[in-house]
Design goal:
heterodimer; A: 327 residues; alpha/beta; Rossmann fold; 12 helices; B: 334 residues; two-stranded antiparallel sheet; 10 helices
Chain lengths: 327, 334
Amino acid sequence: MPVRTFIEAIREGLRDEMRRDGRVIILGEDVGRKGGVFYATDGLWAEFGDDRVLDTPLTESMIAGVSIGAAANGLIPVAEIQFADFIFPAMNQLISEAARIRYRSNGTYGCPIVVRAPFGAGVHGALYHSQSVEAFFAHVPGLKVVIPSTPYDAKGLLRTAIRDPDPVIFLEHKKMYRSVRGEVPDGEYTVPFGRAAIPRTGSRLTVVAYGLMLHYALEAAARAAEEGIEAEVIDLRTIRPLDAETILASVRRTGKCLVVHEDNRFGGFGAEVAALVAEEAFDYLDGPVTRLAGPDSPASPNALPLEDAFMLSPAKIAAAIRTLAAY
Amino acid sequence: MMALARAMDERAWVLNRSGRVHFVISGQGHEGAEAGITAALTPGRDWFLPYYRSMAGVMAMGMTPREIFLHQFGKADDPGSGGRQMPSHYGHAGHRIFTSSSPVGTQVLHGAGIALAAKLRGVEEVALVAMGEGSANQGDVHEALNFAGIHRLPLILLVENNGYAISVPAELQTAVRDVAVRAAGYAMPGVVVDGSDVIGCYLAARDAVARALAGGGPTLIEAKVTRLTGHSSDDQQTKYRSAAELAGERARDPLPRFRDELRAAGFLDDSSEAVLDAEVAAAVDDATDFAEAAADPDPSTLLLHVYADPEVPGATPGAGRRPTGPGASSGGSA
C-alpha cells in the first residue's frame, strides 16, 4: 500500500472527489496557482482549471457565504480558510447561516459545504497561526466537526465530508502535514463520521485525544507501557458527531479517563467528554475524570521557550497518565 | 400585488395588536420598489434573496397569501420554515426564494454564491438580493459586491433606502447620500430610482437583468423608499421622528401614486378598482382564516432537520448517511 504524508492524503482526497463529481469546487486564498500556503491544493488548479479552483480575495466571510449560496444552487464547495486563526470573520456565516440553513428552512434547503482549515501550534506560528478552534464549532447544532489524525483517515474522512449533505468543519493540524506518514490505499474508501478508532488497547486507563495530540498520546502510552501502565488510546476522528459509545465502553472497562487536547482547557472540548463520562459512566469510575489541555493563554506565543511551555508533549501526557494510573 | 401586500401587512398589524401574531416587521412603503423590481425577474428561473420587508417581492415570485400567513402565524405548513422563523423571514424552495435570517447583509453573499454557481454551471439565471440601506455598511455586503464585481456575476442588489436603520438616520449611517455611488468601487453600475415610481423601478431592473444575462455582471439599484410604519411591532417611531416628518412621508407612499398612474393610463377606473379592492379583501380574509385554523407544529418535530439525517445532536455514533450524496436533499435545484 502506498505511504503518504498527511497533506498528500488530503490533496489526493480532494483530487479524487473532484474527478468523481463535477459539482465539487475549491475556493480560498492562494488555493489556485500557488496551491495553498501549505500546498494542500497543489496541482488541482492545473488539472481542473479556473472554474473548479478559485483564488479568492482575503475575505473569509465571503469564502463561507459564497460557498453557502453556491451549495444552494447545485455545487459542492470545499472552502479553505488559510489558517484556522482567520476563520473568525466567517463565524457569522458559519454559525448564523450555514449551520441553520437546513433547520430554519424546515429541511427544504441544505448546505453541503466543507470548510477546511489548518489549526494548531508547535510550528512557531505564534498567536495568529496556532490556534485551536474546534470547541467554538463543536458547540453549534447543525455543524459537523472533523479532526483526522492519520493520512488514511484524512483522505477517508475528507471524502465523507464532501459527500455529506450538511456543513462540515474539517480541521487539519498543520504540524502533521509533513511529519505524519501512513499507508493510504489508492482506491475508493471512506471513513464514517461518529466512529472513533482505538489505535492502542489497554486496561489501566482510557486516553481520549484527536489531531496531533493523538500521536503524542500514543507516544506517551508507549512510554507508560514500559513502566507497566497499559493505557487505552481513543482517536475521536470526529468530535461532532461524537462517538459516545466507544468512549463509555472503554471507560467502563478501565475505570479511568484522561482527555487530552491542545486547545485551552477552560470551556474546551475536553469538558464535554468529561461531562459525558461523569454522567454516563459514574458507577464505573475509579479516579477523577482528568483533562490535560493547553494552558489558558490566547494561543501559543512566539518565543521558543514560551511556545515550548505552551505545548503539550508526550512527556507531559505520560506524566498525566502516571498520575491518574496511580490514583 | 402592491395593494395585496399592503392589505396583508395591515392585517398582520391587526393580528399582532389583537395578540394573534407575535411580531410584525413591515414592508409598508416598500411595495413599489419590491413589486417594480421583481417584475423584471422570471419566477422559477431567477432567484430571490429577500429580507424582512419583502412581502410584495416574495408574492411576486409565487408565494400565496395563505402561505404568507402560515408563515406569520408560525404554522406547521409554513412553507419556508415550518414555524421556526420569526414572521417575515421568508423562504420558499419551490419558488427559488432562499431562506433568510436576521443578521443583516449576510444574504448578499448567498446571492453572490448562487450567481457564481449559475455562471460556473452555465445556466442563465439571475440572483436578486434585497436589503435595507442599514445593511449597506456590513462587511458582508462589501465582500459580496467585491466578489461579484471580480467575477461579473449575474447578481442584482436592491438597496431599499428608507432613511432609517431602526432609529438611526441616514446621516449617521453613511457619509454618502446615495449608497449607489459605492457601486463604482466594485466596477458595477449603481442606479438610484424613486421607490414610489414603480415603472422606473421596473425599467432599472429590466436593464440589470439584461446585463446580468448577457455576462455584463452585477448591478446595484438603490430605491429611495419610505417606511410608513415603525421598524417593527416593537418599535414606536414617533419617539425619533417628528410628526411633521411622518406626515410628509405619506406623500411618498407608492400606492396612491401608482394608482393614479394606472388610472391616467386607462388601466384602472372606479369599477375595476372596486373589483380589485374586493378581491384583495377576500384574499386577506381567506389567508387569515386559513392560516389561523391551520395546525401548529408538533413539539416532537423540534429536532428534525438539524442535520439531514435524524441524529441526537452531537452524540450519535455512526449516524446513517444518505447514499444519494451531497446536495441530494438541498432542495436548491427546485
